[in-house]
Amino acid sequence: MMNEQPFQPRILIVDDNPAIHEDFRKILSGQGSGAAILGALERELFGESAPSSSRATFRIDSAFQGKEALDLVQKAREENDPYVLAFVDVRMPPGWDGVETLERIWQCCPEMQAVICTAYADYSWDDLMARLGQTDNLLILKKPFETIEVLQMAHALTQKWLLARQAKLRLEDLDRMVQERTRELAAANAQLRREIEERRKAEEQLKASEERFSKAFMGNPMPMAIQTCSDGRFVAMNPSFLELVGYSAEELLNRTATDLKITNEQWTSFSEFQKVRGRLYEIQRKDGSKRICKIWVEPVTLATGPCVLLIIEDVTEQKKLEDQLRQATKMEAIGRLAAGIAHEFNNLLTVIQGHAGLLCSGLNDPKIIHESATRIAQASQRAANLTKQLLAFGRKQPLQFKPVDLNAVIRNSVQNLCRAIGERYVLDVSFAEDIPCARADEASIEQILLNLVLNARDAMPDGGPISIRTGVLEADESVVSRNRDAKPGKYVWFSVTDKGVGIKPELLDKIFDPFFTTKDSGKGTGLGLAAIYGIVQQHRGWIEVTSEVGKGSTFRVVLPLWEGKSQVTITATPQLDKQASALPSGSGETILVVEDEEEVRNLACTALKYAG
Question: Is residue 503 part of a domain?
């Protein structure tokens, strides 16, 4: 790199003669003639442009005994600034000779280059190799030596040391890279072994799970089948499913329910079908017979791709039993209704027949005759009212729908309501402002209001407040979920609240049943709330009831809004609440009476004759 420091190798001179040290310093520092000779050789080899700075600049240290040299080498190594080359004299009395000195130095720093300097044949080459071992780090310099020899050896050996060091560093880097790569490979192999082991365990678990699923699927008494999500093809069926549909596995495999006409429903639209939870379907068996089934769908994933698991419950017999129970309940209700009607009409007929018998007995007392006739008229009116309630309960009462302002109807009824409930009761009326008109029959609303107020009065024998409120309701999903007759939209309502005895929770579901009453005997027919329920149903509204025993009840009647469309009108039969103060009289006209019931026809003829 451009910023690297120039290489300045350290050379150690080991000799007991100080003059030798001085000579080496002059030679190696470039002050001797050898340096000039070496420079001339370089110019001859590389040309005049050869940079003189290409030669290394040596750092030179001196040691006069072997022990001192060893200490310097060890210290330099510890400082990570080792000696590259040592020029060692063979004879250095009184301490170690040069060979022993090198032996000890190489034990500490085996890569250091060395030159043995000797003027005597103290050791042969074989002797040196025997003591120092085979090495390429050693040269022998015979005294007296030439300057050029010292320079050549110094440059050659330092360059050799540098190349060896670079090679060693590269080998160490390579070894480090190999070790790092080996560790990475070992880690990757370990991870791969773990993944293989995990996959093996997962496959074993999957296989065990598939076996358990297969056993549960095939052995389940409930009919089950698996279909592909893409096109609804059957890919698996259990024996219970085959028994249900009457087909064999071969006939069903890779076919769809639509292909085989198992159902008229489209079973291949699974984006919506996957949400099915207990939906009723009619399934046609192979022999043409049909079964009513509940179906649940669960998404599953098989090797072939996304599928759905069909879980089927045959509820045909259950539906038959439900229909039978519904019919039995209906017949029971009809029987209870007939018994109640018979009881009420028997009481009324007893009154009518008894007083009619008195009139037919030839009584001449005008007072008794008038009283009997009055009792007969009252019983007849009660029978007529009972008939109206039955019509309302059966939703057969003729109604005339029009826009009705609930606030106005209630405001106009307050005086009559106060007379009906008596002085011990306080009527508290509060109106919501600017409520829209209801689609309603005004006379029916008045009847509902009167019945609810009278029920509130009867719930408080000792008197108390009766509250009437009006308002607007925005029916959302929560309202619709609580009332089966409700649909999302805007409605108006009125409510009647009392502070009476309340209704027990277990009786709330029965209060709209015909002839069900919690009142004492003789104080109610049990048709009031049933009639209200029928009228509200005709209005396409609903009734909400909240009650707490000992604290009172609230009945809220919810009605649809008038939407400005043409009126749905059924002409109501005119009702006379009071007899005319004076009956019209005739003048001998002829009137044809048409009536299939003889007694009614005779009554009409008698009345007309009496009127002239």
Answer: yes
Q: Please name which of 415, 498, 511 lies closest in space to residue 458, comparing C-alpha atoms.
A: 498
Listed in sequence order, the residues at least 6 apart from 353 whose beta carbon sits closer than 8 Å to its beta carbon are none
The amino acid present at 15, given as its one-letter code, is D
Domain of residue 607, residue span = 581-612
Residue 181 resides in a domain: no
Q: Do the beta carbons of residue 499 and residue 551 sit within 8 Å?
A: yes
Give the chain's count of helices (H) and strands (E): 16, 17
Residue 371 pLDDT greater than 80, yes or no: yes
Predicted structure pTM score: 0.38
Q: What does the pLDDT read at residue 453?
A: 92
Distance, in Å, from the CA atom of 541 to the CA atom of 289, rounded to the nearest integer, reads 40
- Give CA–CA dist 580/120, Å, rounded: 170
Q: Which of 435, 447, 436, 437 is nearest to 399 (CA)?
A: 447
Does residue 569 lie in a domain region?
A: no
Residues 147 and 296 in one domain: no
Beta-bridged to residue 427, according to DSSP, are 466
Report the domain count for the chain: 5
Long-range Cβ pairs for the range 248-255 (8 Å, 24+): 251/286, 252/225
187-192 mean pLDDT: 92
**Please, are residues 407 and 431 in contact by the beta-carbon 8 Å criterion?**
yes
Q: Residue 271 — pLDDT band, cuts 50, 70, 90? A: very low
Taking residues 549-572, report their average pLDDT: 74
Residue-wise pLDDT for 335-347, tens only, equals 666 676 777 777 7
